[in-house]
Specification:
The protein has six helices and no strands. It has 142 residues and is an all-alpha fold. The radius of gyration is 16 Å and the shape is elongated. It starts with a helix and ends with a helix.
Length: 142
């Protein structure tokens, strides 16, 4: 059985990991609105304006952080792995301009997060519903 101290460490680790992933991922996409490579891409008509990302992503990170803290015993390692792929996507797409590799990354990210949803659905309804918007957003983004 996990000690109370260990539980706090894992929850704190999740919070720090989410903040770190948001910061690292955000660093790769800060100039997307001015990047000629990105601006010249053939984008879907459903692609939201750049300012929407600055509103949506902080909300999604907060929701997934709360969700992960509620179910950390069940998904801790898997959640950390998905955060890595989350932060990596921005670097692959925006900084390294590798859209095909970024697409493979986001497909893996979607699969990992659907697996997480399946793990928590029956026992942790609140965590499940807090996590769904993130999975919907990355699925839409792909």
């Amino acid at each position: 059985m996990m000690s109370l101290n260990s539980s706090r460490v894992r929850r704190f680790t999740l919070i720090v990991a989410v903040i770190f992933a948001a910061a690292i991922g955000g660093m790769a996409s800060t100039n997307a609105g001015n990047d000629s490579w990105y601006l010249l891409l053939n984008k879907s008509e459903l692609n939201p304006p750049s300012y929407v990302f600055g509103i949506v992503w902080p909300i999604l990170y907060i929701l997934m952080m709360i969700s992960a803290c509620l179910v950390y015993k069940k998904i801790f390692s898997l959640f950390i792995v998905q955060l890595f792929f989350n932060a990596t996507w921005s670097w692959l797409f925006f900084r390294f301009q590798m859209p095909l590799i970024a697409l493979l990354d986001i497909y893996l990210l979607i699969a990992l997060n659907i697996y997480i949803l399946n793990l928590i659905y029956k026992e942790y309804k609140l965590a499940f519903f807090l996590f769904v918007p993130y999975v919907v957003w990355i699925s839409f983004a792909s």
